[in-house]
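User: Fold this, then the next.

Assistant: Folding the first:
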Amino acid sequence: MSKKILLSGVQPTGTLHIGNYFGAIRQFVDLQDKYDTRIFIADFHAITTVQDKELLSRNIYDIVCDYLALGLDPEKIVLFQQSKIPEVAELTWYFNCLTTVPYLERAHAYKDKVANGKEPSVGLFDYPILMASDILIQDAHVVPVGQDQKQHIEFARDIAEKFNRVYGETFRLPEPLIMDTVAIVPGTDGRKMSKSYGNTIPLFATEEEIKKAVMSIPTDSRGKDEVKNPDDLVLYQIHKLFNDTPEIRAGYTQGLGYKDAKEMLIADINAWIAPLREKRAEIAADRNMVLGVLEYGAQQARTIVEEKMKEVREKIGLIL
């Protein structure tokens, strides 16, 4: 029995942080043996926010290095750059012609922009259609998403159903793969870790960057000998990701001061990151290998989508 297809994309819009790893990437690594896994670098999507040639190119390269260093295996999965599959943009146009403006106005990202008094670009408005194309062109069974991202899958399903109704059965209806066990990683200020909040700990941070981030975590005025509930502390919520031993937890209830706790956390994070940092540096230095991985992934992805797009063009009436 063939494996189900899992698809996920990552935007090359900046430096990964530990929230990205514990919230998603770790699960991709764990699932790459269970599913026919396809991970793409969503550079088309990134252009809605990154409109700087050098920055975008560097981000694309960096994200590939990050994923390889974290354990995604190009021999097990299809890892590719979205823009190397122009059929995705072609399919987006076909879907555009079936989708109404009022329907797209329901999209959360679009509504948030408008609510904040900003003028969204056509690219942002059309973002859900491009995402549906990414998913449906691969015939994905499942797409890993958080609870707050289920709308993306709903859009893809609605568009697939409409196409199937108009042109005949063509696309599989994808299902969201909700990771109930995924950690919501708090940032250094207690809110969800996010680049937009500026509260992150970079995934491949230097020891100095780790120290700066950890020392910025706010604490209350309780002294060293006062009992603390670790579940109420951002410091512990981050610490248990790297060292979840009973001794660490017990320390907070048995006189562990905040200064000592932060120093322990810095040491534990650095011990975890150091080998990843070293591995990533080796990968990034081998540019030919990294570009070769992308080219190999693009060849695989193109082979996958060519048959699907031939079917789509034929059903629409473009093949004479």
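Now the next one, as you asked:
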Amino acid sequence: MSSGPDPLVSFVVPSYNYARYLPDCIDGIFSQEGDFAFELIAIDDASSDNSVEILQRYAQDPRMRIIVHERNQGHVKTVNEGLALARGQFVARIDSDDRYRPCFLRTLLPKFDHPQVGFVYGDAAIMDPSGTVTTPSVDRHHHGCDFEGNELLDLLRENYICAPTGIARRNAWHEAMPIPAHLAFNDWYFNLMMARRYDFCYVNTVVADYRVHPANHHSRIIADKSEEPSIRHVLDYIFSEQEATPALEARKQGFKGRAYAAQYLTLANKYFGYQLLPDARRCYLTALRYSLPEALSLRTLRLLLATYLSPDAYAALKRPLKGR
């Protein structure tokens, strides 16, 4: 960072019934390398487990701010509240089942010396419920290279930023607030809203671990199908809004069909994985209608056909086509 007083960083940690993961998350924040000034805002959304008891173990640290809801208010309201309370010049939001690497702040904060950059993020590893890393890197977009620039179109196609790897200027968060109350997620919404106004910076370093487990929020919103209307709402909103520059607006509108196709194709693949075959079929067909160049492939056609078949018939079809 540039010379002058050290900036304050705010960590916002919404939590609901994740007591078994909370110490891993909180310890990751307090274990940051470097002499960074920060506050930690932990909001328990009326958990029925012993989450509050665990948070109270950290209450003596003056950097810790604990808020306890008497009634469950939901993820969106909790995140909105935490971000509104953040006093730091820079703010990072992490779910309480994930954890930061000790290098998180040391790696990402210096990139804000570039005044046009509003959001900085790194790579993530995947860990299992026990905290064991199972996949050392999830980057499939930047191919192992650092990057700085506008990422709006790429993010419209795919939300490739793993939520716990990012940190943004407080103004960037506040300009995108509040999260619409009916959304099933907030990370992609914030990424897109910030990408409309700021350059992003990617640092090719693993800075966080993302935990995959049966109660994971993103798994739930696929299974209960609340993700799909939220994705549609975000796309409809973004494409109805005017961008700050005519050039970006023209690029965005020219990309519209591909963006919708890519998102419906992703939804179709998720539904297929959960054996929600009628929904998968509908989304494959929708993706193809929006953009053949984006959605058409042998794999898409194979999976679309499989939504009409019995499991045995699909297995017979898959064997000769495996790997294509």
